[in-house]
Design goal:
The chain is an all-alpha fold and about 180 residues long. Helix content is about 75%, strand content about 0%. The protein contains six helices and no strands.
Length: about 180
């Protein structure tokens, strides 16, 4: 393992531990109504995004091609896309429960990527069929759309659960069923 591969592993470890801590902090914020936990979890997701970007850049430098050609690289790009979408949506819309969806999903993906066998994690020269500029365009856009779909479907499930719970809690008292933002 050369120095760049070791640095990539360090960045991936930082990514994993930050997003795992963010997952726990988002749950703490909801369960314990701790506002500080949400702030720290957002910061952890930002650090995770920086680590994901760094790991992709390092892989690009030592592999010599965009990191989109094998399962591990695709998972890392998917993780990057999910974190980037999370940060943008959180900055613009400020949904309350989006972190509870995004952080555990990213944690599961980075955990899965980390347990892949070494032969699936190693970078290899691209086969001739993949040596095209379309690789960068097609695969990256496909993975960004997968990331958006995963986050949207996860958020829909969480908000449906919250809607049912609020409807059940307000069943006898009436009132608004709107989910709060912010």
């Amino acid at each position: 393992m050369n120095t760049l591969q070791g640095f990539e592993q360090t960045l991936i470890s930082i990514l994993f531990w930050c997003v795992l801590a963010s997952s726990a902090l988002y749950l703490l914020e909801i369960a314990g109504k701790q506002a500080w936990a949400r702030f720290v979890a957002h910061a952890g997701m930002g650090v995770s995004l920086a680590a994901a970007i760094g790991s992709l850049i390092v892989r690009y430098v030592y592999a010599g091609y965009p990191p989109l050609s094998n399962l591990f690289e695709s998972l890392m790009f998917l993780i990057f896309a999910m974190l980037a979408i999370f940060v943008v949506v959180q900055a613009i819309m400020k949904p309350r429960y989006f972190g509870v969806v995004a952080a555990p999903l990213v944690t599961l993906l980075i955990g899965f990527a980390s347990i892949l066998p070494q032969r699936l994690r190693d970078s290899h020269p691209l086969m001739p069929a993949l040596q095209s500029y379309w690789l960068k365009i097609h695969v990256s856009l496909m993975l960004v759309s997968y990331a958006a779909f995963l986050l949207a479907s996860g958020a829909a499930v969480v908000y449906l659960i919250l809607y049912r719970r609020r409807k059940r809690d307000l069943g006898t008292t009436g009132g608004s069923l709107a989910l709060e933002g912010g």
